[in-house]
Amino acid sequence: MTQSIESGPLRNLLSHYLEARGSRRMPSRRDIDALKLGPVLPIIWVMEHEPAAGTFRYRIAGEEVNDAFGRSVTGHLLSELVAPDHFPTVTANFLRVIEEEAAMIASGPLYRCTDRMAVGQRLALPLSDDGEKAGGIVGATLRKSLVDLNAVTMQEQTLTFVSVDDLVSPDRSQAAGGLGG
């Protein structure tokens, strides 16, 4: 059973992703058109997997993403930004997006690795330079409200992964049962 995407900006990202990939399994980073994602830009981020370093590097990050970390994250490794005790879990989730070529939707507590933890929703989608093998991620994280670090735990976060082959447009997902509606 898939989990629906609750917010308009995340639905917009999914719709653009599906349009940008065309007949391929996944779009490339070059296929993502910022002009078509205007309202989503403050919450959008792009990371590339760096297998040799065992981490991901932020290539693009919107203003709200930078605010969540308290600084610009563009060019930084995820391992530089996430506390060592949270890094294995965070990395494992993003690696699943790459290795399983699957969309990830996370709902509940987000940014536990910072002092700006919030409740919200995150969508992460794999990117591929050749349309077949994933090597990066485009995502968006919508923070609804900041929360006290002691008030919630990451166990309250729900994660859903859906193969890129099973993604459907948010417009059609109600009928099809796919990620997006």
From TrEMBL:
Pfam families: PAS_5. This is PAS domain-containing protein. It comes from the Bacteria. InterPro entries: DUF1457. It comes from Pelagibius litoralis.
